[in-house]
Amino acid sequence: MGSMLAQRGFAVCEADDLAHREMAPGCAAFDEIVGRFGRQILGDDGRVDRVRLGRRVFADADELAALNAIVHPRVYEAVRVWLASQAGRAKAAAVIVPLLFETGRGDGWDAVICVAAPLSDQLRRLAGRGLGESEARLRVAAQMPMCGKVRKADYVLMNTGSREALARQLNRVIGTILET
What is the pTM of this model? Predict the structure, then answer.
């Protein structure tokens, strides 16, 4: 979605990219994560192995909450700084936040767009990223149900077809948003 928005002239900030950056060695979140979860979540390169960490936190709601308490405040602070840097520079800016509603940050945006897909499509896409079915199901279960996100969003794009079909939906929504 971010690349589609960038192609349409939007400045784009990806919360997942910010989270990965915050978890890098040398960042405060890295030290806190290693302190909380132990060195066994590190890969051979000394970086957080997100697969190892994911197996641990998505199997235990308390562990996931602990990780989120470390990472999410830092990500939202980085988003705030990024948005401030865009003032007067970008004619339109978008922040991609997969866990927007789960983090309680769904208010205060000009518009919230939910990209929705059936569970089968979500699981297939996660499998394409190397996750087994049980791991994928744990990750989906850790999120707000899609129907809840759809209800809370201002606009919904159904990601059940081609990339071109999704782009057409996005163009319609952008047109509506920019008209107001």
Answer: 0.87
